Amino acid sequence: MTASSHALDHRVLLLTPTRRDAETSKALLADHGIESEICRNINVLCEEAARGAGALLVTQEAIFSSTDQCLTKLVQGQPSWSDYPLIVLTPAGPQSAADIAALAAVGHMLLLQRPLQIGMLISTVQAALRDRARQYLVRDHLAEQEAYAAALRESDRRKDEFLAVLAHELRNPLAPLRTGIDLLLLENQARDDDLIPMMSRQTSHMVRLIDDLLDLSRISQGKLTLRTSTVSLGEVIGNAVEATRQQIESAGHQLHVAVSGPLHVTGDPVRLTQVFANLLSNAAKYTEQGGQIHLASERVQEKAVVRVRDTGLGIPPEMLSRVFEMFAQVDSSLGRAGGGLGIGLTLVRQLVEMHQGSIRVASDGLGCGSEFTVELPTVAGMPRSGAVRGPEFGSRGPSMNVVVADDNVDAAETLAMLLRQLGHHVRIVHDGQQAVEVVCRNRPELAIIDIGMPVLTGYDAATRIREQLGSRNGVYLAALTGWGQEEDRRRALDAGFDAHMVKPVETSRLASLIEAARRGVSS
């Protein structure tokens, strides 16, 4: 705050019927060290008060002589911290009911009846200024709090952006690792060797961690949307069991699943599968080798209730209220073999709540296992028909000419090696302009184009290819990117792509892409 604004905030504004009265009052206040300023009419008073004032000293005649309502508007339009000390000098004698009502309409004020003692006037003004000074302390505190809150919001926004970028950037080195492992699996199908499957499981686990990190960032930014339909909860649970089967079996656990009758819910089947896969994965992670995991579902009135119970580490009482918080974990000295970022349960709760459901946890303490209970509203009606089973990865069809465009040399090479192993002819380029030239010259059946390339982005490359060859040209364009939101998919399709794939590409997705390219069907 500048010195001039400080002076304005602590001055007394004077409005009297005559200039002489105003000058007398100003001199009297000055004798007691109080700064004041004379206002010639009520409009000037309101204008000056808006600039800053410690108190307003006004005669009743000055208020009633004006038909302008600016003083009432000024008092009633104050910010929450402000309550202008308004001192009104009233004439001698009893006040009429009409006068009292008119003054009350202006707002909160102090009434001093004339004639008055100088000491009473000075003490009243000083008390009003002290009261105003306390209001300024509240104002400054609120401003500091708002600045602090704004800084926290900005920090939180940057954190979310960082997590999103981090997850995206981690996808890039994972892509050649995932593809390379798939290639090794394809080449060594006859080997009785646990090494490659182990590498595959751990890479898949890393991919899931990154996906969870990115999804949590999307939710906190309000960017994650659900693709809802009527779905079978039994199918969702089955998909979650399949997604975590390797992890559960590799730890020697026994999984017991009891699905009670057909239960239908409105939800996103992918996200609901993610919820129960996370709970099963969490149970497997924090249960000692050879433990028991139980998953059961049932209808309770109008709700579908799913319980995931384990015989694992358990949760101490003081942690029960915190397990769904970001980065919250049971004592780091306990059961850390499973690792984790401490975001899985946070994501689970967010996804469940997005489905209008609830989740709770119960545990009798350390060593006593845990039970997570998810409740979702049920709906009547049949779920949408299940997806048609896609082609098996490794199955060979007619050979195709394929262009792979990616500035990440390792990613391009491993993807090309995998496609060649499947019997396809592959050419590699490393920037968007080369992609346009090679695709337009050779007209391959399939072009897999990375979005973030130099010279031309993948979007620009796809647009130019469509412009030069026409939309119906027999070239199937697939976008490859680390960004997997619905808006990213729409942008890719708008640019001219037929399909949108998120790194690292799963083998089943690649097999479906190849089949779609053969049939010329968008995916």
UniProtKB/TrEMBL annotation:
Residues 165-380 form the Histidine kinase domain. It comes from the Bacteria. Keywords: Kinase, Phosphoprotein, Transferase. Its EC number is 2.7.13.3. One of its GO terms (molecular function) is phosphorelay sensor kinase activity. Residues 401-518 form the Response regulatory domain. It catalyses: ATP + protein L-histidine = ADP + protein N-phospho-L-histidine. InterPro entries: CheY-like_superfamily (IPR011006), HATPase_C_sf (IPR036890), HATPase_dom (IPR003594), His_kinase_dom (IPR005467), HisK_dim/P_dom (IPR003661), HisK_dim/P_sf (IPR036097), Sig_transdc_His_kin-like_C (IPR004358), Sig_transdc_resp-reg_receiver (IPR001789). SMART domains: HATPase_c, HisKA, REC. The modification 4-aspartylphosphate is found at residue 450. This is histidine kinase. It comes from Caulifigura coniformis. The lineage of its organism: Bacteria, Pseudomonadati, Planctomycetota, Planctomycetia, Planctomycetales. The gene is luxQ_4.
